[in-house]
Amino acid sequence: MNVFFPALRDGSSAPALRFGERRLSYRQLGAAAVPLAERLGGRTRVTVWATPTLETSVAVVAALLAGVPAIPVNPKIGASELAHIVADSSPDLVLAEPGAALPEALAALPRLDIRIGAAEQTSAQETDQDLVGSGAAGEPDPSRESDASAPHKVPVLPHEPGEEAPALIVYTSGTTGPPKGVVLPRRALAHTLDALEDAWQWTADDVLVHALPLFHVHGLILGVLGPLRRGGSLHHLGRFTSDGVSRGLSDGGTMFFGVPTMYHRLAVEVGADPALARALGAARLLVSGSAALPLTDHARLTAACGRRVIERYGMSETLMNTSVRADGPPATGSVGVPLPGVYLRLVDETGEVIEGDDGETVGEIQVRGPNLFVEYLNRPDATAEAFDGGWFRTGDMAVRDADGNYRIVGRKATDLIKSGGYKIGAGEIENALLAHPAVTEAAVTGEPDDDLGERIVAWVVLTPDAARPSADELSDHVARQLAPHKRPRTVHFLDSLPRNDMGKILKRQLGR
Ligand code: MCA
Ligand code: AMP
Prior knowledge:
The protein is an alpha/beta fold. About 30% of the residues lie in helices and about 25% in strands. The longest helix has 15 residues, at about 25-40. It starts with 5 loop residues before the first helix and ends in a 19-residue tail after the last strand. It binds methylmalonyl-coenzyme A (MCA) and adenosine monophosphate (AMP).
């Protein structure tokens, strides 16, 4: 039988999840997730209000057990982006922690509160009332109790669906228009997590520490489902601070996952913080991903704590493609070698496959393997465009060296911005700016930024007669429509945008 989380079946009192001081053992996780999975049976798709909490983790585990695709949503999402996701994915239920105030588009859906502790009790008596109301107060929260005295009870897991069944739909930005729903089958999740087990010698003894958001691949699939598939545990810090990382790693953590912005902040602070240096130095594995980690940050961290950070490379559509191996050469500055079962090739601009490995010839990375997504939801056109035969076109430009390591040197589309590890399409921000009544033209670029990697910069032309908005007002407008991390950090007001004879905006001339 196809079992996604073998350790849940054992129902042991080994630690599974910790968020702050709230913890669940595997037995407790099973006791919360299995009844919830039973309640989800028959649903088409569910949205998860993805706060960084035990509740989100329980909801996603339950959806996987039930075979119901889950759509994790950023709890800071703005109105128009949320409206798009709800209309595009048409979920029939929203899962949220009790008491969470949901925005209008989600409040209109049937709601099921994720009750840790009350779940077993309510599962047998589900009524429509349960689905819309907040239900009874429930039992004491076991996440605050010791598991030592609890009777050993193996939860009865539902029959899990086949490998190709969609497990998650994760929204990711393209260059234009609103984000697309990436449909990820169970097969892709299982493959990527098992390939990382091999590359990183990830075991049940590992305690992963991180502070990543739970509505993207990095924090949710690698960061929550990863430890649970291994039978190890996660210690989530709630939010990123260097102090939190220091304490988490000193308190039994063996691995840390972060985006380059987090490592940059650690690199800035580690020189003056011996406790942080000791904690990072004692970790078994420090892994960076979601964007490139600059060599200066690699060097500063290694000098201060004596450890190397390893990089891995992935995408929402492909999950993980390559990694520097824990048991291999350091390959600093590269994203390592293809993971087991994953095939990569470099293709030049004429469509020819680059055969050499001279470390200099640049081509687009294309990927094939069991780690790939199925399709963009409701977007057969975009799905077809994304593939070259069976190969997925990543849009990432790279070179390959004689040892088989890939080094990413840039991106094909300048209209894709990576800021703080989040992928953001220039087009979606331009559309949000143009929806402001005072804006008549807008262009958005990504400018280099030491902390964020790239900083979102907006160039706008105002409607002549409208009241002049401030830069902050336009930035807030984008934050409210899309999400705070998509807001422009700088806004330039221009009389006109540079355009070519065809009327196309010449972004490279902006600011010059
Ligand atoms: C600021 N804030 C606002 C506004 N301005 N809220 C509303 N309106 C505004 N105008 C709030 C923000 O919500 C936030 O609140 C706080 O102010 C600071 O925001 P910001 O400056 O944007 O964030 P930060 O503190 O600088 O965050 C840096 C970060 C973050 C922690 C590194 O960027 C982050 O978590 N990045 C992770 C991205 C990620 O997981 N990517 C994976 C996708 P508050 O302080 O309350 O939060 S890529 C992927 O999955 C692929 C597969 C891969 O390879 O991994
Ligand atoms: P997303 O669509 O949010 O999943 O972002 C995927 C993109 O993140 C990839 O196409 C790469 O451009 C980038 N990325 C992920 N990991 C790395 C890395 N280690 N180095 C450089 N870029 C990365």
